[in-house]
Amino acid sequence: MDVAYTLSGFLVGLIVGVTGVGGGSLMTPLLVLVFGISPATAVGTDLLYASLTKTLGGWVHARRGTVDWKVLGLLALGSLPASLCTVALLKYLALDEKTLRSVVTGVLSIALLLTATALLLKDWISNIARREDGTVYELHHHYLPVATVVTGMVVGILVTISSVGAGVLGTVALLFLYPRMPAVKVVGTDIAHAIPLTALAGAGHLLLGTVDLVLLGSLLLGSLPGIYLGSHLCAKLPEKVLRPLLATMLLIIGAKMALK
What we know:
The mean pLDDT is 79. This protein has helices at residues 2-19, 24-33, 39-64, 69-93, 97-120, 122-127, 144-162, 168-177, 183-208, 213-233, 239-259. It starts with a helix and ends with a helix. The protein is built from eleven helices and no strands. The chain has one domain (2-259).
């Protein structure tokens, strides 16, 4: 079974390396639907898995100067307290396994459907604020910080409960809020923000007892070389073909999770 986990980690890492889509939208459903892992354990394990796999990417973006630290700070101002409050609420409620499974599965299915929709509409959303003359509509500067913090809060709650949301949803939200920000900086900022968020949420799940460390090690053993290989293949594979296929897959998985 450990070999199967490692192969799954490699496959997900390969897809993440090629498409840039967060592993949570793929790894968590895979663990739940294929391996029968408890949804809460799948989420908790995947959060620590994500924090470790994104660290290298975040470090590279930081070195290249493709992280907007002010925007990251605003996102974290919303997401980190939201994550802490979500973990504290789960701890306080002390839900039985059946109820917790239902909550996690429900939020996970919604997050997957939102992610698939965001993937399909990514280009449209990134261009929605642009006029024909090349200028852009922008949220008034007085409201932009608040909107960014609120975005962080929503992402923080979704990520803590489902491990999904820090990737595609965060990127699309930044594209909409900051249409003038270069795409590479949007990606870099989103990845850098995901590191402390997934680490904090994962640590919370570790305290709740919903992390399988052996499973985590098996996944990392496969995912790290998978991401490395995928990052070299991404330039050779057309994103316009990959993105609709991936979105369709996530829609199917999300629908299946909702009916589970």
